[in-house]
Amino acid sequence: MSVLVIRTSSMGDVIMTLPVVRAFLATYPDEKLVFLTKKPFDLFFNNIPGVTVVVARHHDRHKGIRGLFRLYRDIREDHNIDIVVDLHNVLRSKILRTLFLLSGCRTSRINKGRREKRRLIAGRINHPLKHTVIRYADTFERSGYRLKMTEGPWLLPPSSSSEVIASIIPGNGSKLVGVAPLAKHELKMWPLEKMTEFLNRLASSMNVTIFLFGSPDEVSQLEKYSAGIPGCITVAGKVRLAEEMTLMSKLDLMIAMDSSNMHLATMLGVRTISIWGGTHPWAGFSGWNSSMDDAMQISRQELECRPCTIFGKGKCRRGDLACFNWLDPSVVLKKVIALLSDKKQ
């Protein structure tokens, strides 16, 4: 059988497919897996034997409705698809999935649990929802593939970038700490003054080198965090994604918001401290296989309005962003220092 898996965005959601992709290949080694995504996310699958990646070119060849039909034909011509597993379930993937269904393929689509997530926000659910990785595995099972999940790491950095990274890491014996302080929405981002206070106190508390991660268009914002902090290096805009993955894999600890960098670090097998505000790890988007103790947040008992959003959109209804402003940098610092002190060189 040849299985087409669809997940083209966003970065964090594509990264979270890695455990199920590896589980599928380990459980069904004789099946063929074709993964449809877009650049640069194809990089995540380059070191996984048995995966054939198809890159959707949404900006030219596969743009619009005609482009979708062209994408369908391109896949059909190159791969004899029997089953389609839609892990995205948006308009474009629905159309593509339907085209394969009409051609005789068996299809399944992810159940995103939207109703449960609305109830979580409304305060009517007081327990963790299914993790997105489990929802992905459930989608495979509806296609007849029951997966046995494997141990991580689920993402391996390209070995070709090791030489570049060696020149970035200082040889002073410092602990290597990655920090991704930014997120797409305000309700997912610890305020600048809180994060800079934490970074300053961390840098003065122990011998650390702090690497700031983010996208190339966030460089100017990241420099506001690194200004005046000794041993703080902005990585964004200086290295490619492949090199960023290699550097991240060598960290002693990663600290991130509810963002793609959190997922990237956990898939690389790096211990990750995540910081949560308007969103909540119970919604199913926490770092895969991460301990809830590593999620720094104000409890729902203290702040009943949490979570107020699933994806971070919107504004604080209280107007004071208490979910972040009540989180004292000293609490995060204590956790981070304890973990770094326990970690052997």
Strand percentage: 5-15%
CATH architecture of the largest domain: 3-Layer(aba) Sandwich
Give the strand order of the largest sheet, numbering strands 1, 2, ... along the chain.
8-7-6-9-10-11
Rough outline: globular
Q: What is the end-to-end distance? A: 46 Å
Average pLDDT, rounded to a whole number, is 96
Write down the CATH topology of the largest domain.
Rossmann fold
The CATH superfamily of the largest domain turns out to be Glycogen Phosphorylase B
Low-confidence stretches: none
Report helical residue fraction: 25-40%
Q: What is the count of helical runs?
A: 13
Rg on CA atoms, Å: 21 Å
Structural class computed from helices and strand pairing: alpha/beta
Classified by CATH, the class of the largest domain is Alpha Beta
Count of structural domains: 2
Per DSSP E runs of 2 or more residues, the count of β-strands stands at 11
Q: Tell me the major beta sheet.
A: 6 strands, parallel
What does this molecule look like?
The protein is an alpha/beta fold and 345 residues long. It is built from 13 helices and eleven strands. Helix 9 (219-226) links the parallel strand 7 and strand 8 (232-234). The longest helix is centred in the N-terminal third of the chain and has 15 residues, at 64-78. The mean pLDDT is 96.
Features:
Rossmann fold, single chain, 2 domains, 345 residues, 14% strand, 6-stranded parallel β-sheet
Fold topology:
Elements lengths: L1 E5 L4 H5 L2 H10 L4 E6 L13 E5 L8 H15 L4 E4 L4 H12 L3 E4 L4 H8 L10 H11 L19 H5 L8 E6 L11 H14 L2 E5 L6 H8 L5 E3 L6 H9 L3 E5 L2 H8 L4 E4 L19 E2 L25 H4 L3 H14 L3
Parallel strand pairs: 1-2, 1-4, 2-3, 4-5, 6-7, 6-9, 7-8, 9-10, 10-11
